[in-house]
Design goal:
By secondary structure, this protein is mainly alpha-helical. Helices cover 49% and strands 10% of the residues. The chain has a 3-stranded parallel β-sheet with strand order 2-1-3. A two-stranded antiparallel ribbon has the order 4-5. Strand 1, helix 1 and strand 2 form a beta-alpha-beta unit. The longest helix has 27 residues.
Length: 262
């Protein structure tokens, strides 16, 4: 999967470098720059072989994370333009999504309208992940075939995206009222193999690490011990940066302070 993300993500330790080398789309929220970046990266993606090197492009057209203040601004935006506001999602920023679909052209095989709902108490973020807290997730998929995508008409594409966001909003309202999405659910069972592999590799890694650390201490390898200490400090710093970056509270004012939303 290839994800579009804000340009500051490239500075995340390790994760940002991986995204840069993997042809991720970095957006600066400046349309003059972003339009050029979208055209360039879509032409790169369009060259990928659809069979041997197919890709799944992930785009959050809202452009930001949901907060009560941003939702209030989105409701105001919709009402000012005579449109029915959304209850559960933000109003999409259609320019980038329209440009991406338009530029990908015939190389885009389908659009997957994906909706997530979290019925449990633990909401998914890096904090709950590092704390080992389980999160319940309900996912609704709707495949939109290539014949349904108005890929050559930007005005129709704008309407297409807004209509699908309204579909998302209706699905989330249904989930809020019924505790599940419509249709027959397909539960994913927990795999014992994954648990076994986790514990086996954890024991092997910790065991080998302890043996090697004991060897360094016994042989008074102070330089290597110092380097390992620095690596742990840098690793902790990197983990802290990633957790901070991913929290809702650290999100920008994008969608609140903007004078114009498009």
């Amino acid at each position: 999967a290839v994800v579009s993300t804000q340009s500051t993500g490239i500075f995340l330790p390790v994760v940002g470098w991986y995204m840069w080398f993997s042809d991720y789309l970095f957006l600066s929220r400046n349309w003059a720059k972003d339009q050029s970046a979208i055209k360039k990266i879509c032409r790169t993606w369009a060259k990928y072989d659809p069979v041997e090197n197919s890709n799944f492009y992930v785009l959050y057209a809202e452009g930001t994370r949901w907060t009560p203040a941003k939702h209030e601004a989105a409701v105001k935006f919709a009402k000012e333009r005579g449109m029915e506001p959304f209850k559960h999602v933000l109003f999409p920023r259609t320019k980038g999504a329209v440009e991406m679909i338009y530029e990908l052209g015939e190389s885009l095989g389908s659009v997957q309208n994906v909706v997530f709902a979290f019925p449990g108490e633990n909401k998914p973020d890096t904090g709950t992940m590092f704390a080992g807290k389980a999160t319940d997730i309900d996912i609704y998929f709707r495949r939109v075939g290539s014949e349904e995508i108005p890929r050559h008409d930007k005005e129709e594409l704008t309407k297409f995206i807004i209509d699908h966001y309204r579909d998302k909003d209706n699905l989330l309202q249904y989930h809020a009222e019924n505790g599940a999405f419509p249709g027959k659910p397909t539960p994913l069972p927990r795999r014992l193999r994954s648990l076994i592999m986790f514990y086996v590799w954890s024991i092997v890694s910790v065991g080998l690490g302890a043996v090697y650390l004991n060897y360094l201490i016994t042989n008074e390898c102070h330089v290597l011990l110092g380097l390992i200490g620095v690596a742990f400090i840098l690793g902790g710093y990197a983990a802290n940066k990633i957790i901070t970056y991913a929290t809702i509270g650290a999100s920008s004012n994008y969608g609140i302070a903007d004078k114009k939303v498009s």
